[in-house]
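Forwarding these from the shared drive since the link keeps breaking.
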Amino acid sequence: MCTYCEFREEWYLRCSDGTKIFVAEYGVGEPIIGLHGGWGGEHSYLIDAFRGLERHYRTVLYDQRGSLRSICPSGEITLGKHIEDLEHLRVELGLERLNLVGHSMGSFLAMAYLNKYPEHVKKLVLVSPLLPRSPQGEVELKLYQELEQKKQAFRKRPEIQAELKKAGLDRPNLTDKERTWRWRIIFAADKIYDVSKWRYFRGGQAFYSEEAARKSKESCPEEYDFTEALKNHPYPIYLITSDYDFGVGSELHKLMLKNHSNVHFVEIKNAGHNIWIDQPEAFRDALIYCVGF
C-alpha cells in the first residue's frame, strides 16, 4: 500500500525577479493548491492537513517568497508579489482555474488572489480564515474586542501549566531539548484546543521567517474588503471554522457574509486554529466534503 509521501515531487518555480519558489506536490488527480499561513510560515505543517486526499487530488504546496525554502531579498517580499507568484504557478501548471485551500493567512492570500484574478479561481476553501474585510461599525468592533479577550483567556487556561508539569517542564535548568518542548507546548497551546496533542504540532522557530512576516505585513493595506469578490464568485465557497479559534472567530465571518448565498460554513467543535490536530477525522471529512470528489 502506498503512502502519502511516495507521491511526492519537488521543484522550483522561477519568478521574473529571480526568486525561486519551492514547490512540493503530493498525490494524483485534479490539482489543489494549498496556501500556508504566516506570513513567514512554510508549507510542511499543512502536509498532515491534506492527508486523505492523495488518491483523488494532487495537492500542490509551496513556500511563499521569503519563507524557509523560497529565499529572496526582503525588498522583494510584498503582498503584490505573493499574488503574482500564485498566478505564475497557475500558468506554470497549465490551469485555467485554481482550486484553492488557504489556511490562516493563506486564506487572506486566497481572497486577495480572487479579488485580482476572479476568472482564474474555481473551488475556494478557507480554513481558520482571516476576516473577509476590516471590522466596521459598533457591533463588529465590539465582537472583535470580545474575541481578543477570549483569546487572552484561552492563552492562560490552566491546562497549559498542567501539561508543562506533566512533562516535567515546570522547573529551571532545562536541557536544550526540554526548552524546545516547553516552547512547543506554549506555542501549540495558542493554536490547538487539546494542549496534550502538542507533539503533533509542527513548525515554528527555524521554520518561521520573522523578516518575511514583517515585510509581507507592511505591504498589506490597513483597511481591506474582499466581500464583493466573494459574493460574485460563481462557485460555492466553503469556510471551515472551529469553536476555539479566537484569532478570527466564525461569529464575525457569519455577520460579514450573511448576504452571501454562495458561502457555506462547516464548523468543527472542540478544535483550535489548527483544526486537523484537534479533530483529524472531522477535519478530513470536512475538507473532502468541501473540495468534493
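-- next protein --
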Amino acid sequence: MEAMKLEKSSTVTKLTYSGILVALSYVGSLLGLIIPGSLAFDSMPAFFGAMILGPVYGAAVGGVGHLLTALINGFPLTLPLHLFIGVQMALIVGVFGWVCQKERRIVAGVLATVLNGPLSAATSALAAHLLGLPFSGWVLFNTMVIPLTIVSFLNVSLALILGNILQKRMAR
C-alpha cells in the first residue's frame, strides 16, 4: 500500500513539474533570438524535463510547450503545421531523453541538435509544402535551417548544463 501511495505521489510530482516546465516553455519563447516566439529558448525546458523526469514527461512538455507558445503567438505557421511540429518536437525530446537514460548525454545532445535543427527544418518545409502554404519547401528550409540548428544547439546545451548541475547537487 505504501509503495502505491509513493508511486501516485511520484506521478503527481512529475505532472506538477511538467506543468511548470510547460509554463517555462512560454517564458523561454519570450527570449527569442530573432523575434519572440519564433526561434527562442522554448524547447530548453522540455529537454531539461526529459533528462530529469524521463523521456515520456519530457516529450509531453515538448509537444504541449510548442503548441502553447504557438497558440499564444497566433499559430504563425497555421494550426496544422504547428500540430505537426508539436508531434515532431515530442518525438525529438523523447529520443533525447531515452538516449540520456543510457548515460550518453553528449550523443543525446548531438542527436537532438541534428534532429531538431536540419531534420526538423526539412520535414517542416515538406509538411508546409504538402499543406499548400506559400512559405514552404526550399524557401522555408533555407530560411530556417541555420538559425534553427543554432538555437537547437543552445537549447540542448543549456538543458544539459542545468541537468548536470542539478544532478550533482542532488547527489550531495
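Residues 137-171 form the longest helix (35 residues). The chain has six helices and no strands.

- D.
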